[in-house]
Amino acid sequence: MRWGILATGGIAASFTANLLDMPDAEVVAVASRSDASAQAFAERFGIPRAYGEWSALAEDKGVDVVYVATPHASHRTAAGLCLEAGRAVLCEKAFTLNAREAQELVTLARRRGLFLMEAMWMYCNPLIRRMKALVDDGAIGEVRTVQADFGLAGPFPPAHRLRDPAQGGGSLLDLGVYPVSFAHLLLGEPSGVTASAALSDEGVDLQTGMLLSYESGAHAVLHCSINAGTPVTASVTGSEGRIDLPNGFFFPERFVLHRDGRDPEEFAAVPEHGPRDSLKHEAAEVMHRLRAGDTESPLVPLDGTLAVMRTLDAVRERIGVRYPGE
């Protein structure tokens, strides 16, 4: 499967390195806004074609699927270019700046009959899938509460992309998307959203607390931050037990199942799979679906991506964060 990489930042480098370790994947092209950046990335990873503009990669018929790894403010434009040119797309999260842009990409992909998936690698992780299966099978009874957090200590200077409104800065879209997506995996779309945040001078959220409520009576208590290093843990509590995920909950090495009246049970990753192999699981899912002729992944369904984006929109409405052009 021939991959194109759109962007040359840190996550693009990590994903490319993982692809090069996979025998059924080949990285054939890379694009950046500048020739120099594209050429440097291509030389670093031995990629045969480098483009100084996104459209050239989108038009490259030797590419089967494009991985879009720009800051999320550019996802609508970058992924849209690729879909318009007939390329399948794996697009980083947050999927777009808002639900409107997300819906535009989903509508375009479905109209063109093209594969599109959000790069929510957490959903492709085998341990996360095992946890989800246990919950679905009733291992902890009826889900009552989900808790998750993701915070970095920083400090990030005002010029950093995480502080830049034009790049969709703030903790919510960059980090909060993980706790919100974790809650969505277990509870679906909330019926009520309450949120509070501390905003920067630039108008992005430095930290945000969220309380999501559901028709079932369940709640999700979530937090994200770019000015406090949080435990980055998660738990799901049911009527008959609890599952705890330790630091790095979105790419766990293990989790612990606590059930009433029983000893705790630990579930660990198989030895040959490191925690960061979630990127490989994500890439493998994309290639599996493309070979099968599918246009969506049941592990990371587009309707779920849209629901998460609606929730993020609702949180931003509550905390008063708007991005340029909205």
Quick overview:
The chain is of the alpha/beta class and 326 residues long.
Portion of residues in beta strands equals 15-25%
Strand order across the largest sheet: 8-9-10-7-11-12-13-14
The mean pLDDT is 96
Number of helices: 9
Listing every helix as H and every strand as E from the N terminus to the C terminus, the arrangement reads EHEHEHEHEHEHEHEEEEEEEHH
Largest sheet, if any? Answer: 8 strands, mixed
What share of residues is helical? 25-40%
Q: What does this protein look like?
A:
This protein has 326 residues and is of the alpha/beta class. The protein is 34% helix and 24% strand. It has an eight-stranded mixed beta sheet, with helices on one face. Strands 3-2-1-4-5-6 form a six-stranded parallel beta sheet, with helices on both faces. Helix 4 (75-84) runs parallel beside helix 5 (99-112).
Describe the SSE topology:
Elements: E1 2-6, H1 10-20, E2 26-31, H2 35-45, E3 49-51, H3 54-58, E4 65-68, H4 75-84, E5 88-91, H5 99-112, E6 116-118, H6 126-136, E7 143-151, H7 171-187, E8 192-199, E9 205-213, E10 219-225, E11 234-238, E12 241-245, E13 254-259, E14 265-268, H8 278-292, H9 302-319
Parallel strand pairs: 1-2, 1-4, 2-3, 4-5, 5-6, 7-10
Antiparallel strand pairs: 7-11, 8-9, 9-10, 11-12, 12-13, 13-14
Helix pairs in contact: 4-5, 5-9, 7-9
